[in-house]
């Protein structure tokens, strides 16, 4: 998970100060020393760290905080607020131009994820905002980049504008905008050329496109895994192009956090989106406050709910709930439920969004082995329809057949059957408890 080391260190640091009935200046100093080290280790720019620590100290060593009833909590609040500010404060929105189409220029180094993000952004604009984007292949130096965008366009069933490798990128952009007007595409997303390093020719070309097309947004795509380098890249692009926002990619990897925590401070430009995987639906709006909350182990329930809303079929969820209540939950329902949860992403990421999840000792070391989930699925899929409805049918020969069919052992089949029974028992208990509560309310 991204930010893991930083999260662990910050959480153990704030844990020490959390419950204190009295906080001394010395306590705050010790805490900020640890926070400072944690940030530096996470590859956060040292100047950014220095300013950050200074602000925390100023705000925490303050009469009001120190003499409050819950000074420990107040200090943590300060840390969270400053961490949020560091990442940009408010979540920032994507521009909508007065005239149509709104033009977005995507810039960045090769390999940062620019082309992929162009596709992801178009997908998000259509899915969440009902927009109809046109993708523009303006990287004329790499035929592969044009092909890649065309492939993405096909996958998304979206138009891609290209004039091949011979045309001038400024002409390409202008003609694309004309086509968008004619075809009622309300967003134009231009995938520009990237290089391995920041280079003058490239910058001159991008400046030319900018001057001519006057884009409403210039998004710099940077790879979060590159830490401080990402910050340097962002600084140069911002100086030359005055970007409007940053998309941080590969936040699904085990990035330490340096880029996410430094870019806003160094460029004063917000991180607008985060790439959370290679797939086209793995782009999320970047919420500084939620991210700060996640890093400090306070959970991110809002994102979890949104994820569930995006991925879980509400009608199915209701049916499932009904079945749980009436204890008629079968293995088929179990399969369904697993598929829905899986569509929300890796289990570890979901757990990271629960407040205090990493403090639950049991959970901390549980490895959510996706393979094991597939094994469970294979076992259920090897059952007959009748067996899935009624596990009581299961006898030794059926178990043997299922084990063989799924390539698992009989003891694994037994374990699953046992877990399933336990789960049903638990559902029954929960339903009874709820009934009990309702009954009491009714009487009172
Ligand atoms: P470009 O050269 O900047 O256009 O980069 P590409 O779009 O070709 O992406 C480079 C590689 O990064 C590809 O293998 C992408 O699948 C991968 N990539 C892009 N965004 C993400 C992300 O958010 N997470 C992960 N894990 N991989 C990504």
Query: Order of strands across the biggest sheet?
Result: 3-2-4-1-5-6-7-8
Beta content comes to 5-15%
Query: Poorly predicted ranges (pLDDT <50, ≥5 residues)?
Result: 440-444
Summarize the main sheet. 8 strands, mixed
Number of strands: 8
Under CATH, the homologous superfamily of the largest domain reads P-loop containing nucleotide triphosphate hydrolases
- On the 0-100 scale, what is the average pLDDT? 85
Rg, please?
A: 26 Å
How does the overall form come out from the CA principal axes?
flat
Q: Considering DSSP H and I runs of 4 or more, what fraction of the residues is helical? A: 55-70%
- How many individual helices? 21
Which hetero ligands occur in this complex? Answer: guanosine-5'-diphosphate
Name the CATH class of the largest domain. Alpha Beta
Oligomer classification:
single chain
Instruction: Please provide the ordered H/E string of secondary-structure elements.
Output: HHHHHEHEHEHEHEHEHEEHHHHHHHHHH
Q: What is the distance, rounded to the nearest whole angstrom, between the alpha carbons of the first and last residues? A: 48 Å
CATH-defined architecture of the largest domain: 3-Layer(aba) Sandwich
Total domain modules? 3
Chain-wise SSE layout:
Blueprint: H1 4-18, H2 25-41, H3 46-60, H4 63-66, H5 71-86, E1 102-107, H6 114-129, E2 133-137, H7 143-156, E3 160-161, H8 169-183, E4 187-191, H9 200-213, E5 217-223, H10 228-241, E6 245-249, H11 258-267, E7 271-275, E8 283-285, H12 288-295, H13 301-311, H14 314-325, H15 331-342, H16 347-352, H17 361-364, H18 370-381, H19 385-389, H20 396-406, H21 410-443
Parallel strand pairs: 1-4, 1-5, 2-3, 2-4, 5-6, 6-7
Antiparallel strand pairs: 7-8
Helix pairs in contact: 1-2, 2-3, 3-5, 5-12, 6-7, 8-9, 10-11, 18-20, 20-21
The structure holds guanosine-5'-diphosphate (GDP).
Guanosine-5'-diphosphate is lined by residues 108, 110-116, 194, 249-250, 252-253, 275-278.
Family: Belongs to the GTP-binding SRP family. SRP54 subfamily.
GO cellular component, one term: signal recognition particle
Subcellular location: Cytoplasm
């Amino acid at each position: 998970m991204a930010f893991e080391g930083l999260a662990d260190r910050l959480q153990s640091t704030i844990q020490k100060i959390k419950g204190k009935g009295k906080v001394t200046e010395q306590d705050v100093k010790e805490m900020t020393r640890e926070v400072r080290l944690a940030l530096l280790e996470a590859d956060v720019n040292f100047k950014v760290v220095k300013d950050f620590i200074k602000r925390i100290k100023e705000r925490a060593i303050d009469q009001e905080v120190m003499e409050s009833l819950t000074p420990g909590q107040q200090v943590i609040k300060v840390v969270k607020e400053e961490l949020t500010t560091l990442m940009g404060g408010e979540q920032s929105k994507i521009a909508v131009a007065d005239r149509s189409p709104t033009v977005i220029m995507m810039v960045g180094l090769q390999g940062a994820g620019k082309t992929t993000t162009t596709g992801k952004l178009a997908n998000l604009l259509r899915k969440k905002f009902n927009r109809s984007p046109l993708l523009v292949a303006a990287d004329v130096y790499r035929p592969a980049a044009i092909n890649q965008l065309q492939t993405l366009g096909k996958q998304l069933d979206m138009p891609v504008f290209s004039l091949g490798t011979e045309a001038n990128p400024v002409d390409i952009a202008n003609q694309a905008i004309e086509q968008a007007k004619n075809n009622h595409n309300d967003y134009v997303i231009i995938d520009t050329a990237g290089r391995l390093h920041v280079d003058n020719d490239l910058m001159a070309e991008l400046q030319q496109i900018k001057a001519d097309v006057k884009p409403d947004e210039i998004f710099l795509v940077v790879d979060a895994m590159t830490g401080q380098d990402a910050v340097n890249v962002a600084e140069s692009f911002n100086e030359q192009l005055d970007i409007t926002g940053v998309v941080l990619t590969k936040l699904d990897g085990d990035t330490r956090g340096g880029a996410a925590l430094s870019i806003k401070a160094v460029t004063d430009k917000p991180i607008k989106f985060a790439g959370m995987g290679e797939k086209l639906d793995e782009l999320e709006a970047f919420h500084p406050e939620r991210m700060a909350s996640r890093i400090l182990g306070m959970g991110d329930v809002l994102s979890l709910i949104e994820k569930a809303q995006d991925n879980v079929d509400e009608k199915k969820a209701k049916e499932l709930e009904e079945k749980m209540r009436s204890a008629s939950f079968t293995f088929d329902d179990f399969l369904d439920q697993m598929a829905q949860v899986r569509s929300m992403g890796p289990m570890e990421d979901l757990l990271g969004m629960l407040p205090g999840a990493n403090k639950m000792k049991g959970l901390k070391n549980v490895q959510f082995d996706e393979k094991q989930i597939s094994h469970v699925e294979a076992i259920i899929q090897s059952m007959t329809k009748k067996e899935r409805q009624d596990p009581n049918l299961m006898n030794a020969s059926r178990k043997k057949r299922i084990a063989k069919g799924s390539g698992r052992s009989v003891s694994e089949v037994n374990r699953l059957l046992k877990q399933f029974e336990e789960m049903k028992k638990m559902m029954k208990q929960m339903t009874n408890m709820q009934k009990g509560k309702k009954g009491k309310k009714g009487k009172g």
